Every structure is written in structure tokens, then in C-alpha cells.
């Protein structure tokens, strides 16, 4: 008889191991209310239960969607195929997943997957499936033709912030070394660049100052322009944890979102007035003697200039600009400044503006003036939208940056990267332009050819007519994707590439915590990784020796070296350490370094003088002026069931059923009934949506979620005005009016490859004309 190998395993004794188990000691200062009573009553976690399912493998990884980066297990069957998901007890999410995370696995083996290259020589032709050699040869021939005729800068590359960091590194290197073009940027330009610009100006580093866990320790949490409950649902656990310990909650948002409904103070300010509001809050803090002058004297510059500007924004003036009571401005100032520990977090709501950088700087000024920086429970953070919104801008695909956050205009930085890449400094192009500016250049025929990777500008960029004209004007366009997006459907070549579950790599979440994604299954036959495609194109362009990477691990090793010694130092981060620790916050300069989850603890920033460089902020009106024909504000945002351009989530049945279509959220004072057709008109055009009538929005504001294409596209109506520093579009405010209409515009089905139709099971509720019963969407039981 052989010994049972499970005999030493206490779980093998049955559902519950024999004998009592001592409760885990609790720190009463940290334990949530009621926890001790629960433990004392014998309610210990059920971690001694054990079950096996033959033939199933659980692959630990992270969600592909937002910047929270929840840990999950992908369930893999005997055949090596992903067939399900389970939440993972990672310390980011603690077994929680949102609706998107729960359904994310369904895209891996989805019927809509692209499995062969698509090609056509003109947009008048239909796509046909071709071999990889034919698609690659045609692409390389077009790149060479355009560049030999018009110059290297006539060809551009647009990347994405949902790519692994290894791939974003390759995007920047491929553009500058293989294409030899200055024109490279990425769709994080539509997301985080205002926060990045403000962080660099104030702190000399581009990342959140505190980890999520610090929220649990704060006494006052201010959330500005972030619909946390829908856009970052699992992050709400930190908000509730802080509230359970008595923290005050302040929410700044023109809509009464789910998170705003729970706040002690909800400031429903008029869109486009954030900097006027925060200047007035700072004015009150100064007038009431609530500033931390000792901290400012030791750790800040520019304070006197900032204080002088704040004096121009008394609550009475800003209340009129913002459309909120002056008393509420005073209340916010006192609540935040008097708290022993306070934190401010913000997202796209204050960043998607022509004054986005200034809005973020105004929040930083408030934190610095009150000394709420660099302490457990006190600090400043930016909530990243895309899964790798943080890591995606750190290593070179942004037009003005090189790996490690180096400036492409800095001679020493250029020399360092050229030495690593093995090229002459004269071969490295200068800075290019931003994503929206590249579209304008396409319209002017300055950029004649384009490769797009992991982006869908036909839905995600503002002013669709301009975007369509820009892409239609290009002589050649190739797109990488695993589904046929609206943008890819307009291309000449579409390369079928892997999902996140079919490759390995790292992402940096909103805390700047680098986490490891693991490969769960092999890609379908005919599908290649983005890394392979870029390296193969580089080889055919004559730069193969600079792209001799077998896969992500080799790329990451070069990325680590390229970032060493920079502010964005990844050198001490390895795949093995990430597997062991569950994530490491950069900077991490050596293998024995623990990482840096909290910045500025020693009172020093990353500027040479070690101080916060406070910046003067002056409010100015939005770029799209109001008049008698356009008296209202249109603002846009996400909904819990969908993600960005919707190319992934609009194909997943449960998410389509929950939120099948966009709507126009309007106040009851306009006389519409729920579900009635409402035409929203801006200077870019008009579209008709079902009305969602709610008192949870300002009477002068309309909200439309932006995950759908024309003719139901919010971004077809938004203005393509840009912040002069960050070049982010002004998505969150443009002038509009609303009118009664006869018929609601129908939501189009997602594009499909030749010979395929959009997966019908995901399209059942798409033509449903009813609005959701709440901004968060609805379940199928509510559709009758």
C-alpha cells in the first residue's frame, strides 16, 4: 500500500480540518467595525475547504480592462482553452471583479475573432483573407513607397495604452528605428496626459503619489471627476473601507453618480469650471488660516504666486462661474483642510478639458497648501482609465518621450537610448505630434500612411467627421486587432493579433504597481502576437538586428536596461519577482529594492531641488462657446458594462444585455418623458437618443456614454479642441441644445470579417429603444 500523499495535508481530512483553529489576531485600529465580534463567535474564513476538478487549470493573471488591474484566475480546460474566470485573492481586489472582469474571458475564444490577415488594395474593394506573407509584403511595400516619395515622416504609428508595457516599448522603438519617423503617439493621449503633465510640472514624476491602500487610512477623501462606481467598481472597496472608519467623502461631479449619492458633500459644478472651483477652495483655506506654512516653507516653491492668484477667486465669484452655492465651497475647504489626513484622487472628469493640466495643478495646489502630501492616508492620486494607462506612457510610445520617461528633446537622454538601441544619435527623429494632431496632418496629406495598434479612433476620437476624413485621405492604413473594429474596417490591411490571455507581459496600474499577466492559452491558428508582427515588419524593413526578440521576456529585459537610472526605473523588477510578490511599484532600481508604493515620504519630490513646484492656475471658459442656439453643456463618460470604444464589450452578451445602447441623460425640467426620442445638437452635428430623465444631473447639462459608433456616437458630437500643453481633447464639455425628435437612431452591429456576421447572441437587445432604468444600466429582467 502506498501512502496517501494528501495525508499530511489538513485539508484532506474532510471539509474542515480536525481540531480548533485560533482566530487571527486583529489590530483594533485597522479592523472594520464588527470584525472582532465575528471572529470571537468562531466565524473564521473557510480557507480549509478543499475541492478538486479534474482536467482544469487555473492560470493567475489580471483583468485586461481598467487601471485597477484586478487579479483573476482564467479557467483552462483539458484542451488548453480558456472557458471561465474566477476572482483571485490578490491584494488589489480581494476576490472582487466587476461586470467587465467577470465577462472578459469570453472574448478569448469568441466567434468574432479575426484568425487570418485581411487585405484590400483600395477602400473600394472588399476585404479578402490572405496569407501573412502577402499582408506583410504589401504593408512593407507601401511603407517604402510612401517614405521614398514623401519622406520618412509621411508615415506614422499610433499605439495603445491597453498593450503590455513590452509592446508599448516596441511601438516607440519600431517607429523611430524601423520606420525612422517622428510621428508616433498613442491613445493614452485621450486619457491620462493632463494628469501626467501636471505631475511632471509639480513633482518631477508622472504617477500617483499613494497606493490604493492609503485610502483606508485617510480622514477625508476628495474624488474629483471620477465616476468610481462605474468606471473603477472594485476601487470602491477602498472608499467604503475609509467610510467605515469614519472618513468624510467629497465628490466633485456635475452628475449625482453612484459614488456621489453616498458623499457627505456632492458638488454638482457646471462642466468646465473645475479650476475656478479649486482656486476658490484654496482661497478659503488661505483666508481661514488653514494652510500648512511650515510644510510650504520647507517643501514648495511658487507658493506666494499661487496665493496671489487664489485671492482673485473668492467663493462668491467662483460660485457664479461654477453654478454651485458659495457655502458649499467653504464647506469643502474646511472639511479637507481640517482633516488630520486627507487625500485627493481625480480622473477624466477634470482632465478631459482644454485646461486639463491646469485643473490637475489646482488639485495639487490644494494638497500642497494643506500639507497633505507623502504620508500614509494623506496624498494625491490619479485614477488611470486603461489597463496600462500608467505603464503605456512610460517607455516611449508617447510622441515626446523615450523609454524610462526620458525627454526626446534632451541630448543626454537621446544619447543614452541611442547607445542601448545601437543607432547613431543623428538617426533618432525629434518629437512628433499628438494623436489628434496626427489626424489633422492626415487630412492635410502631411502623413500619408499609418499603422494603428490597439486603438479605435473612429469611436474614441472627438469630431468623427474630421477623423473619418483624415483616415480616408491616407494612401495606406494597417491596423492590428483581434476583433474588426470600426477603424480596422476602414483599413487596407488588418493583422489578427492575440488577446491578453494569449501572451505574457506586464502592466502598471493606477498606483504605478507593475503586475504580471500570464499566458493562459495558445492563440488560434493564424493569429500572431503584436510583438511578432512588429519584429517581422522591422526585419523586412532592414532593421531586424534591432528587433531580434523571441517574445515578451526578451523585450522586458531590454526595457529594464533602458529604464535603469531614470525616474521611471524598472531595472529591479523581474518576471520572477512579480510572480512572487504580486506586483512592485516603480521606481525599483535594484533586484533587492522593495519598490516605491508611496512617494515623497522624505518630503522630497523628483525635481533637482526636491521641492513641489506649485503652479499658478487661472480659469478660462471652455473652447466651445455657449449661445442662444447652444445654451447647454454636453459631457460624456463611461458606463459600468462597457469599456472605451466598446470594440470588446459590445460583443459580450451579458454586457450588451445590461447596457445595449447609449442614452441622453437629461433633467426633468426639459419636459421629456423616459424613453422619448431626444435630439442632441452640437456644432459638429446631431444624433437622437432615448431620454433618461433624472434629477441626478444639472438642468443645464446633458450626459451621453461614449462606447458606440455613429450614428449613436457621443464623440461624433464632441469638439476636437485640445489642451495646449497635454494635447488632450476637450471631451467633457461642449455647447449643445436638445430637441424633440421622431425616431431614435439605431445602434449598428459591430463590424465583422468577410463571410461572418456579428455574433447574434450578443445583438439581441441592441435595437431595444428603451433607456436603462438607471445610469448604471439594467438587467434583462427590467426590459419588459
UniProtKB/TrEMBL annotation:
**A Pfam family name for this chain?**
Molydop_binding
Ordered alphabetically, the record's keywords are: 4Fe-4S, Iron, Iron-sulfur, Metal-binding
Could you tell me which CDD domains the record lists for this protein? Answer: MopB_CT_Fdh-Nap-like
**Gene3D superfamilies per UniProt:** 2.40.40.20, 3.40.50.740, ADC-like domains, Dimethylsulfoxide Reductase, domain 2
Residues annotated as domain 4Fe-4S Mo/W bis-MGD-type: 56-112
Which intervals of the chain are annotated as region Disordered?
Answer: 1-42, 386-405, 745-784
Q: What is this protein called?
A: Molybdopterin oxidoreductase family protein
